[in-house]
Design a protein that fits this description.
By secondary structure, this protein is α+β, with helices and mostly antiparallel strands. The chain starts with a helix and ends with a strand. It is 20% helix and 33% strand.
Length: 150
C-alpha cells in the first residue's frame, strides 16, 4: 500500500511539473512571419532607386526572444532571392526588406537590386529558414491594391 501512494504521489508531481513547464513555453509562443508586401511602388515605375525602394516586404518577430535570420531567404515566385547576412531580429520588432540599394540598419535591409522583384498583379513571397525549410508564405492576386497584408 505505501508503494502505491509513492507512485501516485510521483505521478502527481510529474503532472504538476508538466504544468509548470508549459506556461514558460506559452510565453515563447509566436513566430517570425511575413506581415506586409508593398508590391506596387508609388507613382510610375521608373527604376530609380527611390521607386525600387518603394516596393518592400515586412517581416515581424512576435516571439519573446531575438531570432537570428542569418542564412534565411526571401524569394518571389520567379525565384529572385534575398539572403540575410548576419542579422538578428529582436523580439517584437519588424524588419523591412527593400528592393533597391541602401545601407542596412536594424530595421531595414536592402536587396541592392537595380530591377523590380514583386509583380504588380500577382506573386508569392516565401520566407525560408537557413535549412531551406519553408517558414512562411504570402500570396497576392490583385491590381486593385498596391499592397497585401499577410
Amino acid at each position: 500500500m505505501p508503494r502505491a501512494r509513492i507512485t501516485g504521489a510521483a505521478a502527481l508531481a510529474a503532472a504538476a511539473a508538466t504544468l509548470i513547464v508549459f506556461p514558460g513555453q506559452a510565453q515563447a509562443a509566436g513566430s517570425v512571419h511575413l506581415t506586409k508586401i508593398w508590391y506596387d511602388s508609388p507613382g510610375t515605375d521608373t527604376r530609380s532607386n527611390t521607386s525600387l525602394n518603394g516596393e518592400w516586404v515586412q517581416i515581424k518577430n512576435t516571439t519573446s526572444g531575438s531570432v537570428s535570420l542569418k542564412g534565411w531567404t526571401l524569394t518571389d515566385a520567379s525565384r529572385h532571392t534575398y539572403t540575410f547576412g548576419t542579422f538578428t531580429l529582436k523580439a517584437g520588432k519588424t524588419v523591412t526588406v527593400k528592393t533597391g540599394k541602401g545601407t542596412n540598419t536594424g530595421a531595414t535591409v536592402f536587396q541592392q537590386r537595380a530591377a523590380y522583384v514583386w509583380n504588380n498583379d500577382k506573386d508569392t513571397a516565401t520566407l525560408r529558414r537557413s535549412s531551406g525549410a519553408v517558414h512562411d508564405t504570402c500570396a497576392y492576386n490583385s491590381t486593385r491594391y498596391d499592397y497585401k497584408n499577410c
